[in-house]
Amino acid sequence: MARPFKPKQNKKPQTDAQRPQDKPGFAARKVAADILGNVAHKHRPLDGELELQSGHSGFRALEPKDRALVRAILGAALRHRGEISEILTRLLDRDIPEKTGRVLDILHVAIAQMIYLDIPDRAAVSLAVDHASADSRSRVYKGLVNGVLRRLGREREMMTEDLDGEVLNTPEWLFTRWRETYGEETARKIAAAHQHEAALDISVKSDPKEWAERLEGVLLAGKTIRLSRKGAVDGLAGFEEGAWWVQDLAASLPARLLGDVSGQTVADLCAAPGGKTAQLAASGGKVTAVDISKGRLKRLSQNMDRLGLSVETVVADLRKYDPPEPFDAILLDAPCSATGTIRRHPDVPWLKRERDIETLAEIQKELLERVAGWLKPGGQMVYCTCSMERDEGEAQIEAFLKAHPDFRLVPVAGEEIGGLNACISPEGYVRTLPFHSVDPNSELTGLDGFFAARLQRS
User: Fold this and answer.
1) What pLDDT is attached to residue 23?
2) Distance between the two ends of the chain, CA-based, in angstroms?
């Protein structure tokens, strides 16, 4: 085991003239390190930390330009967390005994800028040293921070060569699962796709071709528009008038499997944030949206108001809820590990544990059993998860069908999901993976990892 690093004591106190807090860019880097620590050590979801209403106070106080910088730094630091850890292993010949992880957070933020973002080394190094100097927990390590980062600047090529990012940036237990399920080559393609930020996809209520032209996007699978430009969503044409909503192409496929729901009673279960609810309501369904979270359901209702769509909302735990009458169709978007959303949620691999999948699989089984009885004879139910884990997808349906002979699997055809034939399994399930091609006329790739199965009650 490596000998612990023994820092030199800083004997010279800082004066007001030396205050690093006043330097441009310091606040953004400090907030980035704070949030990275909250995610990595306290297991707080990144989205919650970046919430403008209730998130990290320092982040909320920043100017929009600095908030964008924080998002970029955190995205790079989390997508490449394994590589950065390996780089630090090569740079450090002794363990850092500081217990809170603060020094490592500062170093991860700096290295993310130096290696993966277009930020000059001198700025990243200088501000990291200032941060260490200003923080009481890491002040004695400012010399270490300075030396390590300057060495990286000098020996960048040697320190970064032969990094196996696909393996390093995925927790070992998770990559092992993907290798066992999909094989080595596909597991590596999945991991490689996660190193890139997801595109912005939207679903429209009507006239997808017209809106694709108006927003300068690409029309995918007949109904989804992929935008190339970045920026505030609420500033785009059509947002205020409720013409569209943000929804990944893969997330839009499960609702399509219910076909024409016009005039039918449809239950959207675990409905928030409401993309599928909007699809079903825009198609003429009489939708009841059920979710356990009052806050998330409130946001769903606000989205439906903006879109001009009418739905009934119910705050309830599905395990305790009983609908007044059965439904013509049911969409169960079950709670899951969300490993299919890592492109847009890079904190997921570092928040989840393998035991979480076992726990969630039990909940999914319980929910499937409970809601099956809410479906009218002859009605259809779609079960889906934004997970790439077989335990949360194929295995759930196989077990359910064995226990319920009154249900049968209705295989999905390519034309039902816009010709995405590669996303249909031999059994007839929908199984999307992050590297799948989404446009046969171009090299455009990338969508969330999703599983969906369509069942019919006899």
Assistant:
1) 87
2) 63
Give per-residue pLDDT as tens, 263-322: 999 999 999 999 999 999 999 999 999 999 999 999 999 999 999 999 999 999 999 999
Between CA 260 and CA 279 the distance in angstroms is 11
Cis geometry, peptide bond prior to residue 273 (ω within 30 degrees of 0): yes
Residue 95 and residue 144 in contact, taking contact as beta carbons nearer than 8 Å: no
pTM confidence score: 0.92
DSSP 8-state code for residue 140: G
Given a contact cutoff of 8 angstroms between Cβ atoms, the answer to whether 291 and 300 are in contact is: yes
Question: In whole angstroms, what is the distance from residue 440 CA to residue 426 CA?
Answer: 20
Is residue 415 packed enough to be buried (19+ CB in 10 Å), middle (13-18) or exposed (0-12)?
A: exposed
Go through the domains of the chain in sequence order and give each one's CATH number.
Answer: 16-163 (1.10.940.10), 249-457 (3.40.50.150)
d(CA 42, CA 189): 30
Q: Which of 280, 272, 284 is nearest to 314 (CA)?
A: 272
Task: State how far the Cα of 281 lies from the Cα of 262, in Å rounded to an integer.
Answer: 9
DSSP H or E segment with residue 150: helix 142-154
Q: What is the pLDDT of residue 215?
A: 94
> Which of the 8 DSSP states describes residue 112?
I
Given this model, what pLDDT does residue 365 score? 98
Q: What CA–CA distance (Å, rounded) separates 129 from 148?
A: 10
Residue 168 has a pLDDT of 98
Active-site residue numbers?
386
Residues of the chain with pLDDT under 70: 1-18
